[in-house]
């Protein structure tokens, strides 16, 4: 996909990867950016940063756990014209294992999984009708591997990858392209206060702008997997080749990051 003259929706656009995507897409010549986030003040600052550029910028308060909010965001974009790209980007992390309370499990499922369902549900009908459209879901390398210290994050990011795979298979012959973004540690609010990004930063902490560069390159190639940290591809190959060996290696990694100081 060439981003020039495209109409793009981005959720979680007030900070981190979402804000970096908005800035980079504007620089690439997008026609319109429709940005959603719960943090309206920060979202306004992102819009101000984009200035009086060529792109039309629309902002909306959007709680991605609410289907009506996501649908309204997509409708705001459709009021401008056919939506070319929906970046379902918002996400959260919750530490812990199976003991995490049900309410927290439901919250992270709503934000990390159902938000992607809502975005697709809102955008797909018009895209399918005209025979083209692009969905970009932000997941994580945890969705291909796992997340040491967080069962809810690992489970929901796996689900996000699975949903993207299903949509690529089911709608690919209808002109719908799908990519899933799977970075490791990125310098965002989610990693704030974590030394070097914790275990996810084993291959280094990446800046959101670097992730945006990888996204633009991935969209240009229409790659399903967008891996800003290239090491992840090798880890996935190792996992597929010998799952038991990979699990043993992950246990060693866990011991390295959870041993007492």
What does this structure look like?
By secondary structure, this protein is of the alpha/beta class. The protein has a single domain (7-233), classed as NAD(P)-binding Rossmann-like Domain (Rossmann fold). The chain has helices at residues 16-27, 40-50, 67-78, 102-130, 151-171, 208-221, 231-241, 243-258, and strands at residues 7-11, 32-37, 56-61, 85-88, 133-138, 176-181, 225-226. It has a seven-stranded parallel sheet, with helices on both faces. Helix 4 links the parallel strand 4 (85-88) and strand 5. Helix 1 (16-27) crosses helix 6 (208-221) and helix 7 crosses helix 8 (243-258). The longest helix has 29 residues, at 102-130. It is globular, with a radius of gyration of 18 Å.
